[in-house]
């Protein structure tokens, strides 16, 4: 018992100091559980201070953001894999990427709240946007290879960049061809960080309007977003271990987008979908997608094992 505790503490010390060691699955799960517990404590505080309805709105927004964040993390994983980013460098990119997301989400929430307050019809536009993106996700429309994406090409044009990594550093001093002096150059790791920030902006276009379908209170929208985002680093490591067991979660996330988009547009027809029902529907969709993914993954393993036995 003592050895396990020391090992977990060493895992997170190594992450903090940028070492190559990857946290274990149990350690990552405990940290994810801690962030979820903090969110629930905050939700309870809202309940006692403001009442049941704002607390339910926070819980609904948090659940939406956590659901959509899973798809975001799978994109991060594909970016790291495509560029061959080392494990310890992933830690640093995730750290700064999440800090950047905290600031970007604040800007998105303030802008969205201002638009909703001044132009109420913007909510219907948000609903249409969510429906379109939900349909795209159901159809399995994927982005192009991230290595040749317009974002990455634009970054390389703007910033002088080396063609190799330098550990977990974002900048190095090098002497480019034809130059006599050392100059500061960005490493590909900085380009990957900026690419991840751009992908987070794209995901915020979905997640922030989706939370507005639950509440138009900027404080609730922002805090539910941020408390979900702060746990993403640990959730990423959990997903790295179990990525192969979540084949159908993406479709569940697409259905959540469709549900929240339809909820927004339904107001046009005087149809009000309560917050409690929304929470149950979102939780049910996500739960079913996780269960189906787990069953599918187990069936694939069983089929593969039977084939090996027959051989």
Written account of the structure:
A hairpin with an 8-residue loop joins strand 1 and strand 2. By secondary structure, this protein is an all-alpha fold. A two-stranded antiparallel sheet has the order 1-2.
Element layout with pairings:
Blueprint: H1 2-16, H2 25-50, H3 52-83, H4 87-118, H5 122-138, H6 150-158, E1 171-174, E2 183-186, H7 188-212, H8 218-229, H9 232-242, H10 249-266, H11 275-310
Antiparallel strand pairs: 1-2
Helix pairs in contact: 2-3, 2-9, 3-7, 3-8, 3-9, 3-10, 3-11, 4-7, 4-8, 5-7, 5-10, 6-7, 10-11
Largest sheet: 2 strands, antiparallel
**Rg, Å, rounded:** 21 Å
Order of helices and strands: HHHHHHEEHHHHH
Number of helices: 11
Residues in β-strands, percent? under 5%
Short description:
This protein is mainly α and 311 residues long. Helix content is 75%, strand content 3%. It is built from eleven helices and two strands; from the N terminus they run ααααααββααααα.
Notable characteristics:
two-stranded antiparallel ribbon, 2 strands, 311 residues, mainly alpha, single chain
């Amino acid at each position: 018992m003592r050895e396990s505790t020391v090992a977990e503490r060493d895992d997170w010390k190594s992450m903090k100091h940028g070492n190559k060691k990857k946290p274990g699955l149990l350690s990552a799960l405990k940290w994810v559980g801690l962030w979820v517990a903090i969110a629930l404590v905050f939700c309870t505080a809202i309940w006692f201070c403001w009442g049941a309805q704002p607390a339910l709105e926070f819980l609904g927004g948090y659940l939406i953001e956590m659901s959509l964040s899973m798809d975001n993390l799978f994109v991060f994983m594909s970016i790291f894999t495509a560029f061959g980013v080392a494990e310890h460098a992933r830690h640093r990119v995730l750290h700064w990427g999440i800090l950047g997301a905290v600031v970007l989400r604040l800007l998105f929430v303030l802008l969205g709240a201002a638009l909703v307050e001044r132009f109420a019809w913007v909510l219907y536009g948000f609903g249409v946007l969510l429906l379109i993106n939900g349909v795209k996700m159901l159809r399995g429309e994927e982005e192009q290879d991230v290595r040749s994406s317009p974002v990455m090409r634009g970054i390389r044009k703007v910033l002088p960049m080396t063609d190799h990594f330098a550990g977990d550093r974002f900048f190095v001093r090098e002497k480019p061809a034809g130059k006599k002096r050392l100059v500061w150059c960005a490493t590909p790791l900085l380009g990957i960080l900026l690419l991840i920030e751009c992908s987070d902006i794209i995901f915020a276009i979905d997640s922030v309007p989706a939370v507005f379908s639950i509440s138009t209170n900027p404080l609730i929208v922002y805090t539910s977003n941020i408390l979900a985002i702060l746990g993403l680093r640990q959730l990423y490591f959990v997903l790295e271990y179990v990525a192969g067991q979540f084949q159908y979660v993406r479709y569940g996330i697409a259905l959540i987008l469709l549900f929240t988009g339809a909820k927004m547009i339904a107001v046009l027809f005087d149809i009000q979908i309560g917050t409690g029902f929304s929470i149950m529907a979102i939780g049910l969709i996500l739960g079913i997608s996780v269960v189906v993914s787990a069953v599918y993954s187990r069936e694939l393993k069983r089929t593969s094992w039977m084939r090996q036995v027959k051989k």
